[in-house]
Design brief:
single chain; Rossmann fold; N-(1-d-carboxylethyl)-l-norvaline Dehydrogenase, domain 2
Length: 308
């Protein structure tokens, strides 16, 4: 069985790493905050003091980090993954990364005889907790198939999108759609509230209608219970929307709706802070109209379930 390393065990990464432990993969972990790995260490993971040390203990290293800059530092830094991984090893990036940066880092890895896959995930932290998140993989087909047992341990559906870089593109697209849907869901709920409708019933009607979306089914609940606790920050949302903006510019696609949504998210980050949950973008509308979107039947326990 492959010896795996996992770097970045925050809100999402900890769940992905836990799924690997459940599947009995030998696992060595590292994070800037050792306390973030406490549950994994208690479950049998080994700790390493640097990304390089993780790589030295592993056949394949997975990274799940908050930004392209963080990935670059962890992978190509002096004590990085490429400094410790042996020739023949594999680096798998599960971050939402920049198309060209993942290609550049993969080229550096290839010079050392290391192969690379990208495997960003989509579906929400709550699906990562149950091993049902969707995994989007780009890279060589044979390398993908060699790591399929580990990928399937973390995800309910695993797609091989195509060559390296292709998964980065589809991941940015899915996140862009999710943020568009979130802002639209907030506006819809506010229309219902101002129209005198019962919000709990409105939620169910939208869920059963042509206007439904995965985001409405999940994140609208977190708005209605007032927790907003999606386990995904405003900083991350703004980063992903900027990546979409860059792709639109590069591919010559005018992203008018996504551009407007990016502006709304930037205003929300300025108002509530970069570590606020991304769902709090809807709070801009609530605060502007001095009208909350709370509803009976959506207790805050749902937030804990969503982020467990």
């Amino acid at each position: 069985m492959l010896k795996l390393g996992f770097i970045g065990v925050g809100h999402l990464g900890a769940h992905l790493a836990t799924s690997l432990l459940r599947a009995d993969f030998p696992l060595t972990v590292y994070d800037l905050k050792r306390e973030a790995a406490a549950g994994l260490l208690a479950a049998g993971a080994q700790w390493a003091d640097s990304p390089k040390a993780v790589a030295e203990a592993a056949d394949s290293v997975l990274t799940c980090l908050p930004s392209p800059a963080a990935v670059t530092a962890v992978v190509s830094g002096v004590d990085g993954v490429l400094a410790g991984l042996r020739a023949g090893g594999t680096w798998i990036d599960m971050s939402t990364n920049d198309l060209h940066e993942i290609e550049r880092l993969a080229a550096l890895a290839a010079e050392k005889g290391i192969v690379c896959l990208e495997a960003p995930v989509t579906g929400g932290v709550h699906k990562a907790a149950t091993g049902e998140i969707t995994v989007l993989v780009g890279g060589d087909r044979a390398v993908f198939e060699a790591h399929l047992p580990a990928l399937e341990a973390m995800g309910g559906r695993v797609f091989h999108i195509g060559p390296l870089g292709s998964a980065s593109v589809i991941k940015v697209i899915t996140n862009m759609l999710a943020f568009v849907h979130l802002v639209a869901a907030g506006e819809a709920l506010m229309l219902a509230k101002r129209g005198g409708l019962d919000l709990a019933q409105t939620f169910e009607v939208i869920k059963a209608s042509s206007g439904n979306s995965f985001v409405h089914e999940t994140e609208s609940q977190l708005i209605l219970n007032g927790s907003y606790n999606i386990g995904f920050t405003m900083d991350l949302a703004c980063k992903d929307l900027h990546l979409a903006h860059q792709l639109g510019h590069e591919f010559g696609v005018p992203l008018e709706i996504a551009g407007l949504v990016e502006q709304i998210f930037r205003r929300a980050r300025a108002q509530y802070g970069g570590q606020a949950w991304s769902t709090q973008v809807v709070k801009l509308l609530e605060d502007a109209l001095q009208t909350d979107l709370r509803a009976p039947g959506f207790p805050e326990v749902l937030a804990a379930e969503n982020n467990s």
